[in-house]
Amino acid sequence: MSGSEIPLLQLYRTMLTIRRFEERCNYLFMQGRIPSTLHLYIGQEAVAAGVCAHLRRDDYLFSTHRPHGHAIAKGVEPRAIMAELYGKRTGCCKGKGGSMHVGDVRVGMFPAVAIVGANAPLAAGAALAAKWLDKDRVSVCFFGEGAANEGAVHEAMNMAAIWDLPVVYVCENNLYAASTPFSKAFKIQNVADRAAAYGMPGVVVDGNDVEAVYRVAGEAIARARRREGPTLIEAKTYRLCGHSRSDPRTYRSREEEEEWAKRDPIPRLAGRLKELGLATDETLASIEQEVQALIDEAVRFAEESPLPEPEETLQHVFWTEEG
Amino acid sequence: MAMMTIAEALRQAIREEMRRDPRVFCIGEDIGIPGGFGGAFTVTLGLSEEFGHERILDTPISETGLIGVAIGAAMAGLRPIADVQYGDFLFCAMDQIANQAAKMTYMSGGTVKVPIVIRAPVGATGRGAQHAQSLEAFFTHIPGLKVVAPATAYDAKGLLKSAVRDDNPVIIFEHKLLYGSKGPRAERGALSPVGEVPEEEYLVPIGKGIIRREGRDVTIIGKLLTVYRALEAAELLAKEGIEAEVIDPRTLVPLDKELILDSVRKTGRLVIVEEDNYTGGWGADVAAMVAAEAFFWLDAPIVRVSAPDTPPPFSPPMEQFYVPSAERVVQAVKSIL
Ligand SMILES: Cc1ncc(C[n+]2csc(CCOP(=O)(O)OP(=O)(O)O)c2C)c(N)n1
Fold first, then answer.
1. CB-CB: which of B36, B58, B65 is closest to A151?
2. Percent of residues, chain A, with pLDDT higher than 90
3. How many CB atoms lie within 10 A of CB A162?
């Protein structure tokens, strides 16, 4: 696959949408417009974009406490995500879920799971169902390197391997699990090395290079569609923001952050687009405008939407046909 | 006397116990990372500087593993204080707690002890369904576990120290809105009671409740945050000439039954307030106990105020509906007067 076969402009648009969405969320949180806490995805956009570009609407996606980027890339409407963060009734989970549980099953994204690692067995289960019920539908599970040390993740990957399940595990290794650096939680260099122990292919990829992510994910997802079994992808990346709300990030150095800021996937892709002659400064500026307009609209929608009535608490404990 | 938040009082208790006994150590996620958070709510902040990283042991994100390792270490002679960042994650480690820690002493015919302390934050703080549950009843149901729930700095320190010295597994539930965590870890809407804590050594015995306010008309039992809701309600009721007695059990297992029964025998009325779901909540068991043991002193049905039988919702108006308020306690009292 050469550069030109990759939908780079589309990937750029997705990544920029995620970035601007997250920046706006952060601002709105600081302004007190968004309650609770936020786990932002700033810096990791290439992973969500590069993987989800291969997914169909009916493919399954399982996300984490840091789900906004995955949701946008999978096609959940930004306005519905924003409204959810505001706790509004028009949110993608009707205000029941909040930031850590965004999702929209109509576009294949189940509510994100905030119990670290707990989404891995669910993703295997959905893959099991897809294998029985569908021709080539696949399941994708995003998780952090921190999650890789949960028993649930090991158990799930082993089952995915022995049953050749059509699932792709995408470990976003951003080097820190909350404050815990990778080296304190692993004796090995690569999470992907564990794939050998489960009996599935394991691939390490530069998670800040969207072209590389796109290629690797394309192969893994195609393999799952062909019903040849699961893959573990480890995308090496970095969150260019705090873990959650006002994290002072005193557990890592400013120098390290600056190093990684130089590898920011978005300017990197912008440069590549120009180099390949796929975009000019004007094209990029007009994408920027479109994205800003989309985010503005999402915020307006969230601001203007009604809060749920308190009694709505009692709805949706059990599933009903009426919803 | 020093004035302290609950987070500070817990930290002080851990520090004193670790100084006293070299077998005591802390194990958990993000508890001692340099430049880190000192646990999800700052309780272990600064302790790794004094005790080093062997005794403030940071783990990978592996709840089954870390709780299990702590239990094994306790069986073999150490005295761990294990923590999970949010109580909800105890479910990940449920086998280790319910099948291993709680049953070792029994299965061994009383020959193996498991002196572990497990600390777990509970309560709704705007984080949605998987970071907000009040889990006490799951654990009070398991024979072999002691369960404590301090609501003041004094009790937090005294009970944690007693828990460390107890030769049985003790789970200590802490309410997120009571910690008084500072800086970036501060919680919006927190009550953060600051309380007096003596300079000298003291313990609060496990199994002893306390009367937080005396009254003759009705007994209100709260725990953790709902102690404060009960006290607010008592204040409102007093304005109308109704004298409520407020009891804080402090320990849920073993329960200070006599304190509760004596109060009910005096007031003839009982309201139990908790943040847990209604069905199968801890309060249901207290109500059953009082009905069985003080039936002839009761002048009215026992009323329970709790969260409804739903998961904790995210959106603020729904969360406020979910969590019991002082007003709901007042209404409950009036419904039986
Ligand atoms: C079972 C469980 N344990 C602990 C937590 C608290 N927690 C939330 S996010 C996080 C760090 C997760 O790190 P990682 O999996 O690498 O993902 P990242 O945050 O880096 O995206 C922790 C410890 C949790 N939510 N669930």
1. B65
2. 97
3. 12
Q: pLDDT averaged over chain B?
A: 97
Which domains does chain B show, CATH number per domain?
Answer: 2-197 (3.40.50.970), 210-335 (3.40.50.920)
Measure A29 CA to ligand 1 centroid, in angstroms.
21
How far is the alpha carbon of A4 from chain B, nearest alpha carbon, in Å? 41
- The fraction of chain B above a pLDDT of 70, given in percent, is 100
CB contacts, 8 Å: B37 with chain A: 178-179
Q: Is residue A116 part of a domain?
A: yes
CA–CA dist A41, A292 (Å, integer): 18
pLDDT tens per residue, range B61-98: 999 999 999 999 999 999 999 999 999 999 999 999 99
CA pair distance B304, B273, nearest whole angstrom: 6
Q: A294: pLDDT confidence band, cut at 50, 70 and 90?
A: very high
Q: B294 forms bridges with which residues in the sheet?
A: none
Catalytic residues of B: 131
Indicate whether A8 belongs to any domain.
yes
Residue A228 domain-assigned (yes or no): yes
Domain-embedded: residue A136: yes
Cα B102 to Cα B79, B122, B174, B271: the distances in Å are: 15, 21, 20, 31
Q: Which pair of tokens denotes residue A117?
A: 């690692």
Expressed in angstroms and rounded, the spacing between residue A305 Cα and the centre of ligand 1 is: 31
Greatest Cα pair distance, chain A, in angstroms, is 56
ipTM: 0.95
Domain hosting A242: range is 3-302
* Closest CA of chain B from A134, distance in Å: 31
Return the residue in A82, A96, A312 with the most chain B beta carbons within 10 A, the one to mutate for interface testing. A96
User: What domain count does chain A have?
Assistant: 1
Among the atoms of ligand 1, which is closest to the Cα of residue A116?
Answer: 26
The CATH number assigned to the domain holding A61 equals 3.40.50.970
B144 and B110 Cβ atoms separated by less than 8 Å? no
